[in-house]
Design brief:
single chain, about 25% helix, 3 helices, 9 strands, alpha+beta, four-stranded antiparallel sheet, five-stranded antiparallel sheet, binds 2-acetamido-2-deoxy-beta-D-glucopyranose
């Protein structure tokens, strides 16, 4: 009887212990993740999240995505209100975002070589304060096989001319023609593929249903972009 009681108490304690430990561990992970994201997105403090050492697989705090051979992992999210910067990760490396302090209002665009995965250029286009010419010139540098990653912030539409919308459509966007002021837009496409991209989201701005009153919620895509062979 006494022995049984002891076993019972010990088992209960063990269960509680394991339970506590697992809860704390997941909490710790959550906290670290949150810390990374906050540091990364809100330009408050700049911490290299790799150095936290807690998330080895989260290179530069991109949510790590394992992709098959001949695919490039990517993660894109739009900015939120005037608080969270847009972010573009390619091959599990942050190319644009809060931590880099190079993303901004308007459109954030990364170009990569679709065969090698080499990032060629990245730039923010604030179309509120500047004309569309610079963006047009940037898009004209595209070569067949280039991957294009886009994340909007605040408003992607000022001076988004029909000509520019046509170029994004040619890159595989099916939603760019429906973009309205203050919508959120994330997109990944490529030049010369000539088919609709599966990697695109449009978050409609609607004051009745917006997550943040004047602003829609964050748009996000995480995926594996197929490597483009040189001959295509
Ligand atoms: C992409 O990531 C892999 C794995 O981390 C790395 O080996 C490779 O060099 C990267 N490619 C480029 C072009 O950065």
């Amino acid at each position: 009887m006494r022995f049984k009681d002891h076993v019972h108490v010990l088992t209960t304690m063990l269960i509680i212990l394991i339970w506590c430990f697992s809860i704390n561990w997941s909490k710790l992970q959550e906290a670290a993740k949150w810390l990374c994201n906050v540091n990364d997105d809100v330009n408050d403090f700049v911490t290299d999240c790799d150095n936290l050492g807690l998330f080895k697989p989260h290179f530069g705090c991109c949510p790590h995505k394992q992709c098959p051979m001949n695919y490039f992992p990517f993660h894109i999210h739009s900015g939120v209100a005037d608080v969270v910067a847009a972010k573009i990760c390619f091959n599990n490396t942050i190319i644009m975002g809060g931590i880099k302090n190079n993303a901004g209002q308007g459109l954030n665009i990364v170009l990569a070589n679709g065969a090698t995965g080499e990032v060629l250029r990245n730039k923010n286009f604030n179309l509120e304060s500047r004309g569309p010419e610079e963006l047009l010139v940037f898009l004209m540098t595209l070569k067949p096989g280039n991957i294009v990653l886009v994340a909007s912030h605040i408003d992607p539409t000022p001076k988004l001319t029909d000509e520019i919308r046509d170029i994004f459509s040619a890159l595989g966007s099916t939603l760019v023609k429906s973009l309205k002021p203050r919508d959120g837009w994330v997109f990944a496409g490529a030049y010369g593929i000539n088919e609709a991209s599966p990697f695109e989201k449009l978050i409609q701005n609607d004051v009745r249903s917006n997550a943040y009153e004047d602003w829609p919620e964050m748009g996000e895509i995480i995926g594996c972009f197929p490597r483009i062979s040189e001959t295509e």
